[in-house]
Design a protein that fits this description.
One of its GO terms (cellular component) is small ribosomal subunit. It comes from Muriicola soli. By secondary structure, the protein is an alpha+beta fold. Among the domains are: about 5-95, Ribosomal protein S16 (S16 Ribosomal Protein, Chain: A, 2-Layer Sandwich); about 95-150. The protein has helices at about 55-60, 70-75, 80-90, 95-150, 155-170, 175-220, and strands spanning about 5-10, 15-25, 35-40, 50, 65. Strands 4-3-2-1-5 form a five-stranded mixed β-sheet. Mean pLDDT is about 75; it is low at about 200-235.
Length: about 240
Amino acid sequence: MPVRIRLQRHGKKGKPFYWIVAADGRAKRDGKFLEKLGIYNPNTNPATIEVNVDNSVEWLNNGAQPSETARRILSYKGVLLKHHLMAGVRKGAHTEEEAEKKFQAWLDEKSKAVAKKEENLSKAQQEARKKALEAEREVSEKRAQAAAEAELPETPEAVSAEEEVEALDAAPEPQESVAQEAEAETAAPAEEAAPEAKAEEAAPAEEVAPEAKAEAAPAEEAPAKEDPKPAADKE
């Protein structure tokens, strides 16, 4: 009969976990199985995987075919690597001790990588928790400050100042002052225009008087003309 290595679902709705089983390929997914080889719990971070490596290798040697998900899990735990190494032992490529050393070295490297990943995840979780606590603290401080400000009574000085500002805004402007300002604005241009007109009239008269004086001055300075005829000599 064809044997399949596959996952069998367990757990409750929304939080499933799986058994890794060797079962008849014609059986139902969650039906009877031949052997339980391990567990797979994706609800943890990183996922929890436990596999019986030797029994899984034996089933693979006997011709069992893993499903796609089961193949990835077996590869992650080194089952497929050991199956490959044991095939080399049967062919005489290396001894069983050498195959075991290679497999153990691979397991050590894998365990270090997993430990490093778990450490990074724990640091990230701690930082996220720290940021969340700081955000909660800031929110609580703001709420306490707002509550303290709401409980403080208003000072009388602030109240009186606000009342004065409101009274000034509400008071209407007197109409008489507006009329006086309008009259002053209309009278000012007329007063400014009168001196300008007087100055313009006086300026031409003053300019004409110096010109007349200048014309009279050459007439006074001109010498008297002498008689061209010479006087007759007295005999």
